[in-house]
Each structure stands twice: as structure tokens, then as C-alpha cells.
Write a structure and sequence with these properties.
The chain is mainly α and about 130 residues long. It contains 6 helices and no strands. It has one domain.
């Protein structure tokens, strides 16, 4: 009986931990995406420096907002994690090769997103049909 209770507690903690992680990540990407979509001057300047035009700022902002919302919906968590992982990898590449800024925060965001995508990889298998 004690072993079963321990397993239930471990499963509950895992669920709570994943939800907490998803909530924090979703909040970060929602705020970042909203800043891009709202045209915060710092975001406009960054994307001007990248050189792809302001359409890319809007595209990235939409990807962040949609990915964050998908991350929170249990049926699409895997897809949201993959979308946000792609955004994080793109940010790391831009910061490393174009902006010449610190890339660590993009990597720190990418690691838990990759773990979430891996954990929910069975959701992504249905996308090919």
C-alpha cells in the first residue's frame, strides 16, 4: 500500500512539475511575443539589426504567442514545444552570428522545451496523417 501511495505521489509531482514548467515557459513566450507584436522600440531595433525586415518580427511574435498557447493546451503541448524550440534555436543563431550577443538565455529556454517535446513526442506522430 505504501509503495502505491509513493507511486501516486511521484506521478502527481511529475504532473505538477510539468504544468509549472509549461506555465513559466508559456508566460515568458507570451510576454516576449506581445512585446514584438506591440512594436516595443527595443524589439524593433533588434529586428532591424537582424536585417530580415519588420515582417519577421511579427512572424516571430505570432510564433511565440501561438506556441505558448499550444504549450498550455494538453492536446497540442508537443507541437507548442516544437514551435517554441524552433524560435529559441533561431534566436540563438541570430544572437550568435548576427547580433553577437549572449546566447545562453536562448539555450536555457531550449533545453526544457526539448525535454517537453520529447516527453510529448507521441502527440507529434499524428501530424503525418
Amino acid at each position: 500500500m505504501a509503495a502505491l501511495t509513493g507511486q501516486l505521489n511521484a506521478a502527481r509531482l511529475k504532473t505538477i512539475g510539468f504544468w509549472a514548467l509549461k506555465l513559466v515557459l508559456a508566460a515568458l513566450f507570451l510576454f516576449a511575443g506581445a512585446a514584438k507584436l506591440a512594436g516595443v522600440p527595443a524589439m524593433v531595433a533588434v529586428f532591424e539589426h537582424v536585417g530580415l525586415g519588420q515582417w519577421f518580427r511579427y512572424f516571430t511574435g505570432v510564433m511565440e504567442v501561438v506556441g505558448a498557447l499550444l504549450l498550455l493546451w494538453p492536446v497540442t503541448t508537443g507541437l507548442g514545444a516544437v514551435m517554441l524550440l524552433a524560435v529559441s534555436i533561431g534566436a540563438a543563431v541570430a544572437q550568435l552570428f548576427v547580433l553577437h550577443e549572449d546566447v545562453i538565455h536562448a539555450i536555457v529556454l531550449a533545453i526544457p522545451l526539448a525535454a517537453i517535446a520529447w516527453f510529448y513526442r507521441d502527440q507529434l506522430g499524428g501530424l503525418d496523417s
